[in-house]
Amino acid sequence: MDDELCMPERVDGSAQALFAALREALGTSTVLSGVDIPARNEKDWSTLGPVQPLAVVRPTNTEGVAAAMRICAQYGVPVVPQGGLTGLCGGARPIEGAVALSLERMVGVEEIDTASATMTVKAGTPLQIVQQAADEAGFFMPLDLGSRGSCAIGGNLSTNAGGNRVIRYGMAREMVLGIEVVLPDGTVVTSLNKMLKNNAGYDLKHLFIGSEGTLGIITRIVLRLSPKPGCTMAALCALGSYEKVVALLNAARRGLGPLLSAFEVMWPDYWRTVTQQVPGVSSPLSGEHACYVLIEVQGMDEAFDVPRFDAWLERQMEEGILADAAVAQSMADVHAFWGVRDACAEFPQVLGTHEAFDIGLPVAVMDQYVSACLAALRDKYANAVALFYGHIGDGNLHIVACVPGAQIQPKEEIAAIVYALVQQFGGTISAEHGIGISKKPWLSYTRSEPELVLMRRVKDALDPRNLLNPGKVV
Predict the structure, then answer these.
(1) Nearest CA to 316 among 297, 343, 336, 288?
(2) What's the chain's average pLDDT?
(3) Distance between CA 391 and CA 293 in Å, rounded?
(4) pLDDT on residue 14
(5) Rg of the Cα trace of the chain?
(6) What's the sign of the alpha-carbon dihedral 412, 210, 132, 60?
(7) What are the start-end ranges of the H helices in 324-399?
(8) Helices 411-424 and 366-380, packing angle to 10 deg
(9) Which end of the chain is more exposed for a tag (fewer CB within 10 A), N or C?
(10) How far apart are CA 391 and CA 9, in angstroms?
């Protein structure tokens, strides 16, 4: 797909002149080229393979990012922003002839304002560090995903990450009050707003959140923090049909209300794979069932909320919605239950090479989609493996698919099947992972032509020379 990338020509000077200008402005240790380029900066977590960038630039502050962008713009050299490199769609993967601008040295919490319940943080800070800082200050950072130890908060915003608790707290976008961003020409736009209510003109931060580094590079963020939960409860539930999953979701919304923080669904093939093949993961439930649900509830008063959750679960059993349930008796149990859901991180060892998909669908048709997708994959490849799981409470389904024994995985053919059915069922090809390179050919399945034209107009307005992450998204 690299031949689709629109590469601007350098307007002045050689690569060596560019390196000299960058080193003069930023320092010798900030600019890496040739054999000094780390292998980690040549790819992200997608299956697209490595590409060595022209150079890797690692600024330590916003001024350094701005200087790098101005110099690269002067030489007509494109720039690919990089955070934790945990993206799955190639959004941070370098392109030949481009400078990779890594935020890995822009790490740290600048301020926690307890009065406004906000945190100001540098964009390269790992999500787990943000979570820990919030916790130590008596707050809660609800954004959470499996790559928390590696992913950077700036990359989370750049892709508008979702994760495990969207049903209660929303996407990453909902947790941001202000940002600082560097534009393709090196202009710095600082809008580190701390106010919940600020309708003074366009809310510009939303241009950059979810834009995957194609419109600007996020350098600092003001995050909105939440109160720390007083107690956390969880249950792993077995259900006899997907219809009962929907009934349980509706009952949870009514009976638990804002306490409901996660509603994760796993189909049988996924459940069997993780509980039988992933070391350290076992099933707390007996028998075979049509669906499995992890419910998490976060309350503020243990004396009141724990009995309320237990009573609600008992009602679901009495009404025949649940076939079985295991209830966490401690935080260790809660973590163990999440371990079943997060065991997908071990699939490279269990399944080998495979393709991972992140789609969105109306909740009511998800099981129909699962049946249709599995049937279509096995009609094409009789021994195809397809595992389905996800954050069903917010309409997000994940799929892991492969053809065991294939010398080269037919990823384009598998993607064509998965996305054609997404279009047929009225869903989205990306619920939370972004578009990057790998999903770009399928974007029209989800977005109309007027929407795509408007996206291109925004890109042209902010980056008329196509210097920032060219070839990605649009």
Answers:
(1) 297
(2) 95
(3) 10
(4) 82
(5) 23
(6) positive
(7) 331-342, 347-351, 366-380
(8) 150
(9) N
(10) 43
**pLDDT for the residue 10:** 42
First to last CA, the chain: 13
Nearest to 400 by CA among 329, 340, 345, 360: 345
Q: What is the pLDDT of residues 12-43, one digit of tens each?
A: 458 999 999 999 999 999 999 999 999 999 99
**To the nearest 5 percent, what fractions of the chain are helix, strand and coil?**
40, 20, 40
> Tokens standing for 344?
């997908």
Q: DSSP per residue over 99-111, as a string?
A: EEEE-TT---EEE
Q: Is the pLDDT of residue 272 over 60?
A: yes
Following CA atoms 358, 81, 451, 456 in sequence, which dihedral angle do they give, to the nearest 10 degrees?
-150
Instruction: For residue 17, give the amino acid letter.
Output: A
In tens, the pLDDT along 338-394 reads 999 989 888 888 899 999 999 999 999 999 999 999 999 999 999 999 999 999 889
pLDDT tens profile 196-214 = 999 999 999 999 999 999 9
CATH architecture of 352-433: 2-Layer Sandwich (3.30)
Confidence label for 1 from pLDDT (cuts 50, 70 and 90): very low
- 3-class state of residue 149 by DSSP: coil
| Common-topology check for domains 231-345 and 352-433 | yes
Q: What is the pTM of this model?
A: 0.92
Going by the DSSP 8-state scheme, the letter that residue 5 receives in this structure is: -
CATH topology of domain 109-227: 3.30.465
Q: Which two tokens stand for residue 149?
A: 């130890």
CA pair distance 368, 390, nearest whole angstrom: 15
Alpha-carbon gap, residue 35 to 46, rounded angstroms: 23
Selection from 346, 234, 247 nearest residue 291 by Cα: 247
Distance from C-alpha of 166 to C-alpha of 172, rounded to nearest angstrom? 8
**Residues forming beta bridges with residue 337, ordered by sequence position:** none
Q: Please give the class, per CATH, of domain 2-105.
A: alpha beta
Inform me whether the pLDDT recorded for 8 exceeds 70. Answer: no
Interior/surface letters 255-271, b for 16+ CB within 10 angstroms, e for the rest: bbeebbbbbbbbbebbb
CA 374 to CA 369: how far, in whole Å?
8
Rounded distance between C-alpha atoms, residue 370 and residue 379, angstroms? 14
The pLDDT of residue 348:
87
Contact at 8 Å (CB) between 41 and 53?
yes
Name which of 212, 234, 172 is nearest 439 in CA terms: 212
Domain ranges (residues) in the chain: 2-105, 109-227, 231-345, 352-433
Q: Find out whether 18 and 71 touch, Cβ atoms under 8 Å.
A: yes
Is 365 in a helix, a strand, or coil? helix
Residue pLDDT, tens place only, 167-183? 999 999 999 999 999 99
Residues 275-299: what's their mean pLDDT? 95
